[in-house]
Amino acid sequence: MSTNKEEWQQTTLARALKGQAQQYQNSSGINIDPLYTPEDIAEFDYLSELGYPGEYPFTRGIQPAMYRGRLWTMRQYAGFATAEESNKRYRYLLEQGQTGLSIAFDLPTQIGYDSDHPLAYGEVGKVGVAIDTLEDMEVLFKDIPLDKVSTSMTINSTAAVLLCMYIALAKKQGVDPAVLEGTIQNDILKEYIARGTYIFPPVPSMRLITDIFAYCNQNVPRWNTISISGYHIREAGSTAAQEIAFTLANAIAYVDAALKVGLDVDKFAGRLSFFFDSHNDLFEEVAKFRAARRLWARIMKERFKAKDPRSMMLRFHTQTAGCTLTAQQPYNNIIRVALQALAAVLGGTQSLHTNSFDEAFATPTEDAVTIALRTQQLLAYESGVSRVADPLGGSYYIESLTDSLEQKALAYIEKIDSLGGAVAAIEQGYQQREIQENSFLQQKAVDSGRTVVVGVNKFTSAAHKIPPLNKIDPEIEEFQKRRLAAVRQKRDNQRCKQSLDELQKVALGTENTVPAILACIEAYASVGEICDVLRNVFGTQKEFLIF
Amino acid sequence: MAVKDRKIRVMIAKAGLDGHDRGAKVVARSLAEAGMDVIYTGIRQNPETIVKAAIGEDVDVLGLSILSGAHLEILPKIILRLRELSDREIVILAGGIIPDDDIPQLKEFGVREVFGPGTPTNKIVEYIRGEVSAAGG
Questions:
Q1: Which residues contact B81 (CB under 8 A, 6 or more apart)?
Q2: With an 8 Å Cβ cutoff, are A196 and B43 in contact?
Q3: B contacts of A440 (beta carbons < 8 Å)
Q4: Hey, are the CB atoms on A196 and B21 less than 8 Å from each other?
Q5: pLDDT < 70 regions, chain B
Q6: Cα A42 off chain centre by
Q7: Predicted pLDDT at A154
Q8: Do B17 and A360 touch (CB under 8 A)?
């Protein structure tokens, strides 16, 4: 009988394997042993490393009761074509038991161009819903009372504009903005790193973000003012450790920026939220969520001297990994999504989007998104995984992985600190280069068959069965342009112009921009008109590192 | 026409507003490692810029990456403008999220081949070598 791991490996295991065990590494380059034992977590101190759910360092979850208190929010990212079409999809999803909304905007809306701008050609209503003015927003939320639903909006460089539309709409519905619940993504740094919908240079972009922190603290206190996102960083090709590190390094930059303009850390940090990817390697992903939670708690307490425990809680949304969806044998994606969703739940997510199996082709059909939502409901109500907080906690493997990921992430954060922080590192192309390098290695591994993708480089089939797809009617671009023209016709154009002039004055000065943007929105100024004013004052940003 | 002994020149361009550049960068690097001269434009390029750059760089191949669903609008615009400004036979390829149903239409407009998700990079390398040597002799 073996008395330690090494002895067991060299005797009993070696005999069974007839030689050495094959070497495996996870995405983060951590060697994976064939077995984990108490020796792998020898230095482990339960209270300081894990503690209890709802208590520092929150490794085991931010809520004391976790899913016994409340299940995660089932929040499918949706939006396409016109406000009318998207409104129908939202109401369908809510009828099917979805518990929160998540709005996908089209690219012109995300980059601050109206639907009639030449650069919007072909893009209107494609990857999300087209929103030009408050009138579109009124249609988008028709029969959806804003005090009864929480809404997440994937919007970044134009986050202040869309947030103001939501506030203006609430006021029109007779809802006090102080009760509004939801999230704006508002994370410009990862746009420079990975997602690409930036408009302005970093300095004015950070000002818009801290303006939102300050405004919401006073007026929309239950709003998550930012969703600091690792999702797109991972989708662009990073490892799990880089996903944690680059996200938290960005978070550190936002906290620094807010402190620099004089905000008190415990006044805004509790409204910061996060957004992660859930990829294929189930245990690595569970460990990633736990490591991120512990590392953030430590950063807030030790680096930023936060006092309020809420400032230290890493609350996060998860989306299953879009980049793992295959166009080949697309129904296999349903299984991939289920496993990735399981990792998110075992990792203690606060809300979850499950991808639809047809998304390697197009935005999803109603049938496909229904299966994706049902996957979450099966996990919540049939599998039993929601009954115990952090059910994998204490596993030698999970604890060892959690430690390794935290250490790796911390090393990257120190590297970014040494480059002058996240913004300076982005300007030098550091994160972009790291991601680019890793995505290339991943592709080589798939090309060579070292990484198996079922249906793509193994277990392939000749038959190419394509599900029915969601098609966006190209006519909607003209429809949207006509609606915008009609708004411009009927609004009080003098009031609109005055509000835009006032915004320009505020943008040139140092006052908070949010009230001025809100005034523009209430005068039915368009997203493009507002962003043109800001482009003129702030300038625009070119890609930092192309290749 | 490819001059003999000249390296195959390829431009990989991100057309439209989408920032999904993972595929474009991986393809660009794979082609470069296969010995081609590769120019990558970066994201959010408009049709006019792409066309002028492709002509200015005298490329044999123009690879257009698009994942926003705007391929049926934006790719024809690029191809028409390219034909307007240049007589040179440039092989046009497309990659990204493009439903199979749209491929015949793109080919009618002059896209030579479409490479979707899951394409091994060496398949693109081989395809380009085949097309360019066939045209250039």
A1: B47, B48, B51
A2: yes
A3: 25-26, 29-30
A4: yes
A5: 1-4, 134-137
A6: 35
A7: 98
A8: no
Q: What angle do CA A273, A275, A277 make, to 5 degrees?
A: 160
Q: What is the pLDDT of residue B135?
A: 61
Measure CB to CB from residue B42 to each of A194, A457, A543 and give the nearest one.
A543
Q: Which of B26, B50, B71, B72 to mutate to test the interface with A (most CBs of A within 10 A)?
A: B26
Residue whose entry in the numeric block shows the structure tokens 């603290």: A217
**pLDDT per residue as tens digits for the range A488-530:** 999 999 999 999 999 999 999 999 999 999 999 999 999 999 9
pLDDT at A19: 72
Question: What CATH class is the domain A46-448?
Answer: alpha beta
| Model ipTM value | 0.94
Which H or E run contains A77?
A: strand A77-78
- Quick one: tokens of B13? 């361009």
Q: Would the CB atoms of A443 and B30 count as touching at under 8 Å?
A: yes
Cross-chain CB nearest to A126 (options B25, B69, B121) = B69
How many whole angstroms separate alpha carbon A25 and alpha carbon A38? 21
CA A123 to mean position of chain CA atoms: 22
Q: What was the pLDDT predicted at A531?
A: 98
> Which residues on chain B are in Cβ contact (under 8 Å) with A453?
118
Query: Quick one: angle between helices A240-260 and A396-418, nearest 10?
Result: 50
Flag residues of chain A having pLDDT under 70.
21
Domain ranges of chain B: 9-136
Interchain contact, B116 vs A327, CB within 8 Å: yes
DSSP string, A379-436: HHHTS-TTSSSSTTTT-HHHHHHHHHHHHHHHHHHHHHHHTTSHHHHHHTTHHHHHHH
Residue B105: beta bridge partners? Answer: none
What is the full DSSP assignment across A329-370? Answer: STTHHHHHHHHHHHHHHHTT-SEEEPPPTTTTTSSPPHHHHH
Burial-class residue A113 by CB neighbours within 10 Å (0-12, 13-18, 19+): buried
User: Which residues from B are below 8 Å from A481, CB to CB?
Assistant: none
Region of A384 (left: φ > 0; alpha: ψ -120 to 50; beta: rest) is: left
CATH superfamily assigned to domain B9-136: Cobalamin-binding domain (3.40.50.280)
Please return the burial class of A23, using the count of CB atoms within 10 Å of its CB with bins 0-12, 13-18 and 19+: exposed
**B28: closest chain A residue by CA:** A547
Which residue on chain B is closest to A198 by alpha carbon?
A: B19
- Does A447 sit within 8 Å of B29, measured CB to CB? no
Among B21, B71, B78, the strongest candidate for a mutation testing the A interface, having the largest count of A CBs within 10 A, is: B21
Write out B56-124 in H/E/C secondary structure.
HCCCCEEEEEECCCCHHHHHHHHHHHHHHHCCCCCEEEEEECCCHHHHHHHHHHCCCEEECCCCCHHHH
* Pairwise CA distance, residues A530 & A545, whole Å: 28
pLDDT of A23 reads 85
Task: Write down the pLDDT at residue B137.
Answer: 43
Spans of all domains in chain A: 5-35, 46-448
Instruction: Give the CA count within 13 Å in the CB-facing half-sphere of A346.
Output: 22
Asked if A191 and B28 come within 8 Å (Cβ–Cβ), the reply is no
What whole-number distance in Å separates Cα of residue A303 and Cα of residue A306?
8
- At A321-364, the pLDDT tens digits run 999 999 999 999 999 999 999 999 999 999 999 999 999 999 99
Give the pLDDT score at B133.
81
The gap from C-alpha A207 to its chain's centroid, in whole angstroms, comes to 21
